[in-house]
Design goal:
single chain, alpha+beta, Rossmann fold, BirA Bifunctional Protein, domain 2, Translation Initiation Factor IF3, five-stranded mixed beta barrel, 15 helices, Pro-tRNA_ligase_II_C, aa-tRNA-synth_II/BPL/LPL, Pro-tRNA-ligase_IIa_arc-type, ATP binding
Length: about 500
């Protein structure tokens, strides 16, 4: 046994004496308040004065955003997508061109109307999305088939002055995202890119954030304004019983090309309009990860997105070789860092051991290593897993290999646990009564549907409540078989597809 078990004071008592890092709310009892508290105490965000819906993203959050960027950006460059940057401001005449596609933006658009005390001749909007900023220039740059495909992406911020209940990361007035905008000569090329991008979004959620998602298409009601179809990676939050659109990849068809006259001349000298796509994921990814994995101690980070994967803490009790322990900890960090493991030393002498442990638990660091006098004598370290609390002694000679295996195991285990919890919330139904019962139990519902807009709108109307109405989350690309005679759960008409339904963020 290490002295970390037998000699350290009780963690809760230490922390209570120094500063209260404990969460007031419990995830299983008051999920919304728990979430709001954990994103602040884990130092992901800070509220920005008294302006509802605006948040400061602190380094702990931005580090995760950068890791996702470092995966995604090289992948889209392999697809010959180029990065660019367009201004934040949208000319009012350009925005009005897409008004019939973006009715929902009307109340969300923030306008700049003055410079100092001078009223601007032309009102400028802060971009809610960039179609109306970028596509006038696509029209200028695309003339013939040699100019295609044109595939651009920008990493930027957008502003949507939400009127609902703002939630950090999930729904805010300003957020970070990447938005890709592509133009092709044919629909086949556009269709292929939609699915290629969607697979990258699946990788972000499942392979980095350890959050299970369903690849699917949105209903007509939920399709992105101006698109002919929208694909999504749809996640589900068991504790709230709500779905969440993780990212979308849209085929815009020729609707925007028509509005902005994005035309080209093909190889035969014939005039035509381009086929366009738009696709994006945002800092919403971080919020979904927190909701799925967090617990009553704070964040639980998958190793692949943790900026610190291993925190090393010296344990120099009285009569111990304090300098030897500290040197060993420093050497451990160096060894792990040289092996491309993101490790850091907690050399803070002002906080007790209990305070340190609770802080790193709150921030969700996947592995905590402690080294004391007995560990030094036994040429070992003691490692504690954040995801399940398990501890293991690791011989120093095997340290790098064992830590890598542990981190890989944590990553996979977090996904497996999250998928099991998500799958336990999925309920297959066939009738309206079964639907209502499953909805009241906060399930993700898989139901046969006739795929009619009026029926979906009727479902929304019939399920209105304080928690919001139920809607079609997505129709999975991997469709279960529709048996002959299967009826739509809501209308009784012949079913055309299986669709996931539920409440949604």
């Amino acid at each position: 046994m290490s002295e970390t078990d037998s000699e350290k004071p009780h963690v809760t008592d230490e922390v209570k004496e120094e500063t209260d890092l404990r969460l007031t709310y419990r995830k299983g009892e008051n999920f919304e308040e728990w979430y709001s508290e954990v994103v602040v105490k884990s130092e992901l965000i800070e509220y920005y004065d008294d302006i509802s819906g605006l948040y400061i993203l602190r380094p702990w959050a931005i580090a995760m955003w950068e890791i996702l960027h470092d995966f995604f950006d090289p992948e889209i460059k392999k697809m010959k997508v180029e990065n660019c940057y367009f201004p934040l401001f949208v000319l009012k005449p350009h925005l009005e061109k897409v008004k019939d596609h973006h009715d929902s933006f009307d109340e969300q658009v923030a306008w700049v109307t003055k410079s100092g005390e001078t009223t601007l001749e032309t009102q400028l909007a802060l971009r809610p999305s960039s179609e109306s900023i970028m596509y006038p220039y696509y029209s200028k740059w695309i003339r013939g088939h040699r100019d295609l495909p044109l595939k651009l992406n920008q990493w930027c911020n957008v502003v949507r002055w939400e009127i609902g209940n703002p939630t950090p990361f999930i729904r805010s007035r300003e957020f970070l995202w990447q938005e890709g905008h592509s133009a092709f000569a044919s629909k086949d090329e556009a269709d292929a890119e939609v699915l290629e991008i969607l697979e990258l979004y699946r990788c972000i959620y499942e392979e980095y954030l350890a959050v299970p998602v369903i690849k699917g298409t949105k209903s007509e009601v939920e399709t992105f304004g101006g698109a002919i179809y929208t694909t999504t990676v749809e996640a589900f939050i068991p504790n709230s019983g709500c779905g969440i659109q993780g990212a979308s990849s849209n085929c815009l068809g020729q609707k925007f090309a028509n509005k902005f006259e994005v035309n080209f001349e093909n190889q035969n000298g014939q005039k035509g309009m381009v086929w366009q796509n738009s696709w994006g994921y945002s800092t919403r990814t971080i919020g979904a990860m927190v909701m799925v994995h967090g617990d009553d101690k704070g964040l639980v980070l998958p190793p692949k997105v943790a900026s610190i994967q291993v925190i090393v803490i010296p344990m120099p009790h009285k009569d111990a070789d304090a300098q030897g322990i500290f040197d060993n900890c420093s050497a451990t960090v160096k060894l792990l860092s040289e092996a491309k493991i993101r490790a850091e030393l907690d050399s803070n002498n002002y906080y007790s051991h209990g305070r340190k442990c609770m802080e790193w638990e709150m921030k969700g660091v996947p592995l905590r290593i402690e080294i004391g006098q007995k560990d030094l004598a036994n040429e070992q370290v003691r490692a504690f897993r954040r995801d399940n609390g398990a501890k293991v002694d690791i011989a120093y000679a095997d340290l790098v290999e064992k830590i890598k295996k542990l981190l890989n195991n944590i990553q996979q285990s977090m996904f497996d646990v999250a998928k099991q919890k998500r799958d336990e919330c999925i309920q297959v139904i066939h009738t309206w009564d079964e639907f209502v019962e499953a909805l009241n139990q906060r399930k993700m519902i898989l139901a046969p549907w006739c795929d009619e807009k009026e029926v979906e709108l009727d479902v929304k109307e019939r399920t209105k409540s304080e928690m919001g109405a139920a809607k079609a989350l997505c129709s999975p690309l991997d469709q279960p078989e529709i048996l002959e005679g299967t009826k739509c759960f809501a209308s009784g008409k012949p079913a055309k597809k299986w669709t996931y339904w539920g409440k949604s963020y």
